[in-house]
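Cross-posting from the modeling subforum.

Setting up a comparison between two proteins and wanted a second pair of eyes on the formatting. Protein 1 (sequence, then structure tokens):
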Amino acid sequence: MKSRLVVHFLDGSLIKGWSTDLFPNKPTFHVNDSETEESREVHLADLKGVFFVKELARRPVRSQRRYDIERPGLGRRVRVTFRDGEVVEGYTNGYSPDRLAFFVFPPDPDDNTERILVVTQATADVQLV
């Protein structure tokens, strides 16, 4: 199945596209650029995270993101601070500092982001809250 992705690199660049071979325990995967259709091998070690999205087109910024929504079954509440200062909150059931990466699900089901594959080495702090 093709997953729509926004791939965020540590250097601040990104690729919007899709992949069929991305797994959280594999160090590499391929992303097909939505603009050029070119396939590129990507190493998780070069990434901040991979954002699985509903739509690749940029949505208008919502005035209020909801963080107060409980989403049973998605794991523990977590606050992730990336090395670049960005903070995301959500739920995870697979965080371990020894893992290459882990998934975070946003608290707001109406968010364009369905889930984030967070690369552990790109984080400055991960707090279970």
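Protein 2 (same layout):
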Amino acid sequence: MNIRIYFAGAILGGRDNLAVYQHIVARLQSLGHSVPTEHVAHADVLKEESGVSARAVYDRDMNWIRECDAMIAEVSTPSLGVGYEIACALERGKPVLCLYRDGLFISKMITGNPSAQLRVLTYRELLELDRHIDAFLANIIA
């Protein structure tokens, strides 16, 4: 079953996580899912987005959140935009998986959120990350 997954990751401050972003997007696509936000994992995303107005980004991304079946967010790097996107997805009843590197501390607004639609998990390696993603997707598809 092909589902639409909104992938979220820090753009302005999260370039250190680029390889992880690319891995997540490639994994989702290899499983046959569509990722309208695949550009977040592009090395030149800042250049790609430079000509797009703030309002156009907001309208586009809010539309993608409305149309998605679920969200996966890599939250190792704090990002106002990613936090906002997570809140919007949860507000719309979308299942959300937040992933971050083990040993980091992330906002208690994420870890303390009691929403049944939210899963927050740590990972040490890409294989563990894949297992979390696979379990999350299996739960959505079931």
